[in-house]
Description:
Strand content of chain C: under 5%
Organism (chain A): Anoxybacillus mongoliensis
CATH topology of chain C: Amino acid/polyamine transporter I
Radius of gyration of chain A: 29 Å
Structural class of chain C: mainly alpha
Number of strands of chain C: 0
Distance between the termini of chain C: 22 Å
Family (chain A): Belongs to the GerABKA family.
GO biological process, one term (chain A): spore germination
CATH architecture of chain C: Up-down Bundle
Order of helices and strands of chain A: HEEHEHEEHEEHHEHEEHHHHHHEE
Shape of chain A: elongated
Keywords (chain A): Membrane, Transmembrane, Transmembrane helix
GO cellular component, one term (chain A): membrane
Number of domains of chain C: 1
Helix content of chain A: 40-55%
Oligomer: heterotrimer
Largest interface: A-C, 29 and 39 residues
Shape of chain C: globular
Structural class of chain A: alpha+beta
Distance between the termini of chain A: 71 Å
Amino acid sequence: xxxxxQLLAHSLDANEQTLRDYFTKTPDLVYCHLLIGExxxxxxxxxxxxxxxxxxxxxxxxxPLLFETRQINTIADIQLPIGAKSYATIWxxxxxxxxxxxxxxxxxxxxxxxxxDTQGWPQRAIAxxxxxxxxxxxxxxxxxxxxxxxxxIRRYLPHQQLKVETTTVGRRGHTSVALLxxxxxxxxxxxxxxxxxxxxxxxxxxxxxxxxxxxxxxNPFSPFPQFLLTERPDAAVxxxxxxxxxxxxxxxxxxxxxxxxxxTFFQTVDDYSTRWMIASFLxxxxxxxxxxxxxxxxxxxxxLSFHYEIIPLNLLLTIGxxxxxxxxxxxxxxxxxxxAIEMLREAGLRLPAPIGQTVGIVGGVVIGQAAVxxxxxxxxxxxxxxLTAIASFIxxxxxxxxxxxxxxxxxxxxxxxxxxxxxVIGFMLIIGHLISLESLGTPxxxxxxxxxxxxxxxxxLRFPLWMMRTRPLSARPTQLTRQKKFRK
Amino acid sequence: MKKYMYVFLCFLFTTGCSAKTQLDDxxxxxxxxxxxxxxxxxxxxxVSPVFNKEAKNIYEVIRTLGVTPRDGRSKANAxxxxxxxxxxxxxxxxxxxxxxxxxxxxxxxVFYRDPKNSTTANFIVFDGPLKDVMYIRLDDKPRLSxxxxxxxxxxxxxxxTTKINLLEFRRLSLDRAQTPFAPILRVHKGDLxxxxxxxxxxxxxxxxxxxxxxxxxxAILNKNIKPATSLxxxxxxxxxxxxxxxxxxxxxxxxxxxxxxxxxxxxxVHIHLGAILTETTTHIAMKKEKKKLExxxxxxxxxxxxxxxxxxxxxxxxxxxxxxxxxAYEYKPFQKQKSWSKAFAKAEINIHPTVEIISxxxxx
Amino acid sequence: xxxxxFNEITIMQYIFLISGAQIGIGILSLPAxxxxxxxxxxxxxxxxxxxxxIIASTIIxxxxxxxxxxxxxxxxxxxxxxIFGTLIHLAFVAYALLASMTVVFTAIHITQVWxxxxxxxxxxxxxxxxxxxxxxxxxxxVLARYAEFVFYLTLWMPILIAIPLQKGTILYxxxxxxxxWAPIFQAVKTTVLSFLGxxxxxxxxxxxxxxxxxxxxxxxxxxxxxxxxxxxxxTCFIFFSPDETPSLIWPTLSLLKTIEFSFIERxxxxxxxxxxxxxxxxxxxxxxxxxxxxSQLFGKKDxxxxxxxxxxxxxxxxxxxxxxxxxxxxxxxxxxRYGLWGAYIFPIxxxxxxxxxxxxxxGKKK
Lengths: 488, 364, 366
């Protein structure tokens, strides 16, 4: 059909013909002819069988129409027990709405069409989030319908300052994207920047939030995530309150949050419901895990390849004994084991649970035990690789965890070439990269570089909640005060 | 950006890099021994661990004849199973005869000059030819180097000898106001024994030694009391016959007062020791006789300390560091002395120890 | 008119940038140099040097404050005309180049001696240039953030240096003023030069956001450096016997060699590797100054091209030329001689000149 901007015709037959021309090979499109009102007037209901709630159509549309006794002149005369309805005169709107599961009601002799919200498609019930399981927070996770997701967020923030702006992305998919923010907190520049970037996206469709994220992030060459993806509404709300923007994408159970800083990827919303000492300990643990996950295997390689002196004698003798039969240089040994672990992880991820357990057994027993006994790798290497793996699992954000796992490999190579110097240079590069990285135009290295001492209350340590009276400056909030000093 | 790093690293990876000192290819010289060999040459021993289940010994001893330690190492590399490195050296042992005739610094230079070498290795004087210790078979002990280190540490803790690492040895040697010292190790009936202290003069040559019995007193003078210094003293005068009393010194207050009069240094040393009575061979009514016992002990300790100082003065060595006090408080006359050792030998040293028994166990 | 608005840096960043530039390679050998001249009284010279450097940096700030949007490059053009201005511009660029060369080659030399004895010069140079390029390319803002981050990252290092302090003998320090004041004043020349780095205020001042705190910032930066110098020097003096310190080239590292923990030994290897961070905050500002100066000379806003050329030149140099230790020492002494003029004498002269010029102009206009 050329030119979907075309207006509808007055004649029902013409309209039906247009529809039939457009929707070829669409067996699930239902044309339902009706005679309504006194005197009878021809009408046509059109909907996609697969995307509508049939009960709703039968009870709320067809049934009242059949028993209509008044005279129907124009489409505006039709009264139906459905709240969300709209009128359209352009074919483009009609077609788009029909594809979204609405029902179009055509009336003979009227060039307006009534669009009824009868959407009903297969959807998942709200369930506990799979990737970010929650210990203390809510057990509701986002689902694939964005209205529901917005609803989940609104439940936490029934406040007029919570604004929702929707737009669509994608030429084919017309994926709905909603920006949620607190108008009196979020910096307008940041918001505008985000809007501009989303507007520029010109793709077929956005299947998942992760795709949109890659289209709008600041530095696509960075190994680090610049937006947070979460499937927990409480996490989204917590970030909203810090002055960040939540981006909800239809069809995707994870929402995107920005602008983020590096350290926020090491925090979870559960931290705020735990008492501050424990939360601080966990934060320190995660930071330690970050360093372990990046540097532990490379430190081992560096020590063995260059700086045997730094290992205390007793440990050195143990290492020497355990490496006695190993024919591989430390780098290869480490890469071999790291790759094995990565493969195991990836294998376990995609397999159904019963088989997944087999992978664990194969990995743990066969590769761990047997490789050592066969003399391919040393005991200590197995210990180090396992520690590294555990450390990388501690990091709460899966994206960050993946980046760190990836960075480990160049680090290991650097360590095997230049020892500790290589590692330090690698670290310098990471830092140099991090401090120049930005998320939506706000520095990702904040609050460390540039330093914002006020924000340190919620970084490495988590100060008691009553001390967190201001929102983090790194999100550039326009309203800084978050709570009054109400506790002495 | 990261991608540049990858590119560069790939480049470097392909060019290769020969800088590695991989642990597997190394022979770690954990103990290095220096002794006089034939024709005035240097006999160098190096003891290194062997990581091989098939090998009978868990350590190998390499003996070479050379002019200097580095020369010996180069020769040893010809038949060692890996490149010999000294980065983890634990002990540097020299034989007494070698130490008597050679300036130690000429032979230790390599350990200081090469930053890869360890400067925390223990410096030890061995009483006897080095082959006695190098080829000793210790069936009940682990690797030789570890055994030597552990024996030394234990003996040092119980003040039977002292401990000094290469860096401290250098520090003492280079200071005008002090002379270095070292622990003595010997082999007795197939056992390693660490006891006694070797004294070196300003030329870093061995001049004499303190016996194992004198070692605790040396530790006291050196203010090195912790964790506890145990003494067994023979005391007459409490009862009529000779009695033995053991004390464990827990704390001490020291004051070294230097002064310069009539071209002579004078030191007034006040030592206040807090001790725990651990053993007596006779009954002492502690309530009544505590004061008397304290005085007797002090007297005995004074006798021993004075004997040591006398000995050091005859050897013209100052391992205690009296010179430090002289320099700090009597700088002008100190600077005028050509040799502190000579001045120290002439100095008048008065030692006044006092003992306080702070506890005497669970018996009255 | 704000020329460098996008690149504004905070007062903290400014402080760490300056003190980062001050604390670098000099500190590794400073105790030995001081002990050589003034024995264990050398630490007094540090305090005197600290006061002098504060005075000098105050003069620099006072001069720069007259034209808060100008770097030294703009200033020299403004007051000395095209030819003389360009000459001063070139001299400053040459100074920064010499400084960066010295820092980089010394860093390479120390790395080779202590950590990677068999790795060729050019490989280490390439390695060092990677972060150097990454950080310099992004301009003052990232440079300042880097200096700031490194400061926090290296806070543990002075604490570590203090560990040998408890094994030391304080008696080595006594008596104070053992040879009178004469050797101390001789040593002041050395300490004054170890404070070099504050002259970068000539370049970084216009980027500072809160300019009214500039003098305070300079005092704090100098004090941070002075404290570090003092800590390390005193630790070395207490740890090594007085006659031993001058016999070491890098006493600070020899000192660290003895630090042992139950899980790690030979701390100097780790310390020195990490110390590359500290050296980078010395080298990178100088490299930046060089590159920035050259691109200003050609009137270019973006310094990336000059930077690429500079980095390539550095790497090429290291391919062709492996400086021996004595060459590096010569380079260092050139820097110091140049620095004495550039950082202490030139600012006084400039201050007087600029004040006079303004006074005359002011007389005409107002």
